[in-house]
Write a structure and sequence with these properties.
single chain, 346 residues, mainly alpha, ABC transporter involved in vitamin B12 uptake, BtuC, two-stranded antiparallel sheet, 2 strands, globular, ABC_BtuC-like, transmembrane transporter activity, transmembrane, transport
Length: 346
């Protein structure tokens, strides 16, 4: 089977699986529709049935459907960002949460939540409206630049330095966030807890529109870079000889990754390990061909996060388990497996 045909086959198969999981997710929940199928309620809403009750309409469209779409979008972007970073750093441990990207985004989002009221009025109106989102993106971008500057020398990235820098950023972010929690008010404390544990409960269609725009822009730039990332696996000098503009590629991946991670953190808080789990599994199945695993990770990330979110809503009904806890439970063993494999390789 040719590579292109193989990609189409697995991409279609993954998309079908995603649709099946989305259908199951739509049917999962404690709300009683009075014996009527949730799919029938959704169809009535789409048709504009005037007899549909406001509570049924709200639950099926503004709660469940919006949450499912957000899980698909965020899971996809977190997975692709992790895959892109691993290709750039040539290491399976390079993900947004492990190298401090998520921590940086969370830190600046927390500062905006707790201290934003003191300086918000001095900012342009457009920035005021999306202060937390803008702060999360800026935090992710600054963290990415710091990690890259410290861990890269002479065009080569030191993996140990990269991970240690991530640990340092995470420690600093944790300490400052802890101080912000200490001085925060009750409403701010609830928001900060939301960021730290990660949740899709605050999903809205407005946020989904923003996520969709960010995803489309990011994927237009990032997804075609699979062959360039394959060339980067040979080394930067060899990639340059093959006609790859290495510096431009680095800047694109850094900015796009910061944009995706920052936006995801701004809307859903800290959801770790998605960018580690999906690329690792795909690499086991299809080797390190980024022209193949980069687009495929876009769908598989959605599958992973939507599955985790469906479980988080149903394990402790009627309460909800923060999704960041589930992804960390799944990602921890895989992280250890990567470390063991990396140790053997050394």
């Amino acid at each position: 089977m040719k590579t292109q045909s193989k990609l189409y086959f697995y991409f279609t198969l993954s998309a079908v699986l995603l649709v099946i999981i989305a259908v199951l997710a739509l049917n999962t929940g404690v709300y009683d529709f009075g014996g009527t199928s949730p799919f029938r309620i959704l169809w009535q809403f789409i048709k504009g049935d005037p007899g549909l009750s406001l509570s049924d309409k709200y639950v099926i469209w503004d709660v469940r459907a919006a949450r499912i779409i957000m899980a698909i979008l965020i899971g996809s972007m977190l997975s692709v960002s992790g895959t892109g970073l691993q290709g750039l750093f040539k290491n399976p441990l390079a993900t947004g949460d492990l190298i401090g990207l998520t921590s940086g985004a969370t830190l600046l989002a927390a500062i905006a939540i707790v201290l934003g009221g003191h300086f918000k009025e001095y900012l342009p109106e457009m920035v005021q409206f999306s202060l937390v989102s803008f702060s999360a993106f800026l935090g992710a971008f600054l963290s990415m630049m710091l990690v890259y500057r410290i861990s890269t020398s002479g065009g080569k990235t030191n993996v140990v330095m990269m991970l240690l820098t991530g640990v340092a950023i995470t420690a600093i972010g944790f300490s400052i966030t802890g101080f912000l929690i200490y001085i925060s008010k009750d409403e701010q404390l609830r928001d900060l807890t939301f960021w730290n544990l990660g949740s899709l409960a605050a999903a809205t269609w407005t946020k989904n529109i923003v996520l969709t725009v960010v995803m489309i822009i990011s994927y237009i730039i990032l997804l075609p870079q699979g062959k360039a990332l394959n060339a980067m696996m040979l080394g930067e000098k060899d990639a340059q000889h093959l006609g790859i503009n290495v510096e431009r590629l680095k800047k694109q991946i850094i900015i796009i990754t910061a944009l995706m991670v920052g936006t995801c953190v701004a809307f859903a808080g800290t959801i770790g390990f998605v960018g580690l789990i999906v690329p690792y599994i795909l690499r086991l199945l299809f080797k390190s061909d980024y022209a193949f695993i980069l687009p495929l990770s876009a769908v598989c990330g959605s599958i992973l996060l939507l599955t985790a979110d469906t479980f988080s809503r149903s394990i402790v009904e009627p309460s909800e388990l923060p999704i960041g806890i589930l992804t960390a439970l799944m990602g921890g063993p895989i992280f250890i497996a990567i470390l063991v494999k990396y140790k053997r390789a050394l």
